[in-house]
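Notes from the pairing session

We agreed to fold both candidates in a single pass and log them together. This is the raw record for the first candidate, unedited. Please don't reformat it; downstream parsing expects exactly this layout.

Candidate A
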Amino acid sequence: MLGTALYWDADYEIVLALLRAYPDADLDTIGLHELYERIVRLPGFADDPALVNDAILRQILRDWYEESGE
């Protein structure tokens, strides 16, 4: 969904954008702070960065791991 704005509650769309932006990411070494930084730098990210919490980031990381096939 290129061109679609990304918000924290759209974890799956964020995961798809992460897969496109970082296809070779080593998910075993990415911490929550690095994940946060990568998400807010994604093209189309439009939400308030301050609205995130660790639970949201952990869910996104879990979904990214599952979608990446690792």
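Candidate B (folded immediately after A)
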Amino acid sequence: MLLTLVINDNCKSCVRAEKDLQDLAVQYPSILLRIVNINSFYEKKVAITPALFLNEELFSYGDIDKSKLIAIITD
């Protein structure tokens, strides 16, 4: 499963989300994690960071609901 996290500079929520996702990527080897700065993310329009995409589909903005994400990963 491809997880793409779109972040911005000086964003505390982005730092938290990145750490959470890196931890999950260690626990779940099926995760391919890609971190992209909003200034170089041209695939989709994003106005709010952090933004998390699962297999190219928007999953969430802001802090990540880890329990919901884990449920999707393990389904």
